[in-house]
Amino acid sequence: MNARGYFWRTVQQQEVDYIEDADGIIKGYEIKWNPKLKLKAPKSFKEAYNTDVALINKDNFREFL
């Protein structure tokens, strides 16, 4: 599998920390160290790429790696 990593930001400063495109399958990730923070994924990203954004934090980062 070939995977490419990207960062996504709009002119309005909405952003997704890490985007992974693996053979045409796009996944978004927000990375927050504090597990108490809420995920605020931009609706425009989810609609444009038809995918959700996962939250990575200090409790689950090992599964992401």
Distinctive features:
2 helices; alpha+beta; single chain; 65 residues; 17% helix
What does this structure look like?
This is DUF4143 domain-containing protein. By secondary structure, this protein is of the alpha+beta class. It is about 15% helix and about 40% strand. The chain has two helices and four strands, in the order E-E-E-H-E-H. The protein has a four-stranded mixed β-sheet. The two termini are about 15 Å apart.
Brief rundown of the structure:
The chain has 65 residues and is an alpha+beta fold.
Biggest pleated sheet: 4 strands, mixed
Count of helical stretches: 2
Count of β-strands:
4
**Helix and strand composition category:** alpha+beta
Biggest sheet strand order reads 1-2-3-4
Q: Rg to the nearest angstrom?
A: 12 Å
- Average pLDDT works out at 93
Residue share in β-strands:
35-45%
Shape: globular
